[in-house]
Every structure is written in structure tokens, then in C-alpha cells.
Design a protein that fits this description.
mainly alpha; about 85% helix; flat
Length: about 220
């Protein structure tokens, strides 16, 4: 077997474009997932039974079903109900955001519960409402503690986003498949794809480590 290094050089720009799409999908999905997860995580701690139950059903359903099935539901099944085709990009972002939101919800819930209950009581004793105490006292402290698991969620989404290739969306994995179909250079292309994923996840890991150290230093001051 001859290793075709020239194929890697020729294909690298196209794969980098796919990697850019992968980062875009992951960033948007985790960004929307943060919003979803924050509200659902708070809802999971609600004293209102209907709110708490609905939030728990959402989390259990999403975490209990594969992301691939969720992508199929949104891209293939949902258009049957609404009577309109869904753009692959919208379907990909929606499925990944909803999926990420369930995991982020549990991260937020754990982060909030890690804060001493006296913090909420102190805020209420100062005349702040429950929402104000949560916004200005609890969530800022919780956010610092959940940086590592949020970083892990971003890395997981970066890798799981390869599943959107099944609906024809041309992210990194799909670009690799298309190049292989044209050149038959499976080993070289998949090796390059794996290397690009490794570089992206390693970079994010180092960034998360930096943020974690920075906030720990800030807490000491």
C-alpha cells in the first residue's frame, strides 16, 4: 500500500472548510443549548410540580434517545406534520441544540445545587426576589463551577455533530466521505479527518483549562 501524501495536501483545504462548518454547528448548538439548559435546569428545581415534571420529561426523553434518531425525527418526521420541508442546516442546529440543552440542563441543575442554600436565604433577607437572587448571586457562582462540564459538552457536541452528515449536511465527516467517494483514498482521508478532530478537541480542552484556572484565581482574590 502506497501512502498518498499528495492527496492529503490537495484535500486539506476542503476538509478545513468542513471543519469550519463543524465548529459553527457545535458553537450554535451549545449556545442555544446553554439557553435551553439554563431555563430547564432551573425548572427542574422548581417547586411547581407541573413545571418540574415537564422539565424532567424533556431531559429524560432527550437523554434516553440517540441524537441520530432525534435528527431523523426533526428532518424526516417533522416535515410530515408541518407540511413543509426543513432546511438541513436548520434541522441540524435544532436537533443538536435540543440534545445539548438536555445535558446542559443537568449541568446547570448540579451547579445550582452545589451552591450553599444560605446564599439564597441571604439574598431573600436583603429584600431581593427569588429571580433576582438567582440571577445576581446563585447563577454567577454556579457558572464558574460548571465551566469544566460545559467544556466537555462542547467537545462531545463537536464529535457528535458528525451525525448530521446523514442528512447530507457537509460538515467535516461528510466532506471526508465525498472526497473518498471520488478518490478512494480512505486511509489518508480518514486519518486526516481524525487529526483535525483531535486538534479541535485539544484546543478546546486547553481553553477550558485556562478559563477554569482564571476563575479559580479570581475567586481567591
Amino acid at each position: 500500500m502506497n501512502f498518498d501524501f499528495d492527496l492529503i495536501v490537495r484535500s486539506f483545504p476542503l476538509l478545513l472548510m468542513g471543519a469550519g462548518v463543524t465548529v459553527q454547528i457545535s458553537a450554535l448548538s451549545v449556545g442555544f443549548g446553554l439557553l435551553i439548559g439554563m431555563f430547564v435546569g432551573i425548572a427542574r428545581l422548581s417547586v411547581l410540580w407541573p413545571v418540574k415534571t415537564l422539565a424532567a420529561i424533556y431531559v429524560d426523553f432527550i437523554r434516553g434517545t440517540p441524537l441520530l434518531v432525534q435528527i431523523f425525527l426533526i428532518y424526516f418526521a417533522l416535515p410530515i406534520l408541518v407540511g413543509q420541508r426543513i432546511d438541513p442546516f436548520i434541522a441540524a442546529i435544532t436537533a443538536c441544540s435540543v440534545n445539548s440543552g438536555a445535558y446542559v440542563a443537568e449541568i446547570f441543575r448540579a451547579g445550582i445545587q452545589s451552591i450553599d442554600k444560605g446564599q439564597m436565604e441571604a439574598g431573600r433577607s436583603l429584600g431581593m426576589t427569588w429571580a433576582q437572587t438567582m440571577r445576581y448571586i446563585i447563577l454567577p457562582q454556579a457558572f464558574k463551577r460548571i465551566i469544566p462540564p460545559l467544556g466537555n459538552e462542547f467537545i462531545a457536541m463537536l464529535k457528535d455533530s458528525s451525525l448530521v452528515s446523514v442528512i447530507g449536511f457537509e460538515e467535516l465527516t461528510r466532506r471526508g466521505q465525498l472526497i473518498i467517494a471520488r478518490t478512494y483514498g480512505s486511509f489518508e482521508i480518514w486519518l486526516t479527518v481524525a487529526f483535525i478532530y483531535l486538534v479541535m478537541t485539544f484546543t478546546i480542552s486547553r481553553l477550558v483549562d485556562y478559563l477554569e484556572r482564571r476563575y479559580k484565581i479570581d475567586d481567591k482574590h
